[in-house]
């Protein structure tokens, strides 16, 4: 009985580690050279492209992450989401 319990525990541990590796690889693999195309897509729906690109590139270089989509989804990049201006607004688009 103990060996069956150990196999189940081991299997769950392996699945958890695989899931964590997958989630980490989504965001951790970004290099500064990847920021330009991701920010171009992120800023594609705004009418203020120049400031959006400036801040997106700055945030991407610092955080090595750009949230998916053209708006919102900032919870996918905690650093990007939590970087605030002096006034308390979001620095990153």
TrEMBL record:
Keyword tags: Signal
Gene name per UniProt: LOC103715030
Protein name: Protein RSI-1-like
N-terminal signal peptide: 1-28
Superkingdom of this protein's organism: Eukaryota
Pfam families assigned to the protein according to its UniProt record, in alphabetical order: GASA
Lineage of source species: Eukaryota, Viridiplantae, Streptophyta, Embryophyta, Tracheophyta
Species of origin: Phoenix dactylifera (Date palm)
Positions of transmembrane segments: none
Similarity comment text for this entry: Belongs to the GASA family.
């Amino acid at each position: 009985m103990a060996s069956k319990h150990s196999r189940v525990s081991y299997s769950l541990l392996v699945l958890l580690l695989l899931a964590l590796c997958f989630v980490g690889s989504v965001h951790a693999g970004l290099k500064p050279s990847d920021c330009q195309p991701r920010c171009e897509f992120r800023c594609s729906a705004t009418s203020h492209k120049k400031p959006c690109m400036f801040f997106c590139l700055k945030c991407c270089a610092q955080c090595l992450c750009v949230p998916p989509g053209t708006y919102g989804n900032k919870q996918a990049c905690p650093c990007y989401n939590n970087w605030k201006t002096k006034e308390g607004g979001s620095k990153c688009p």
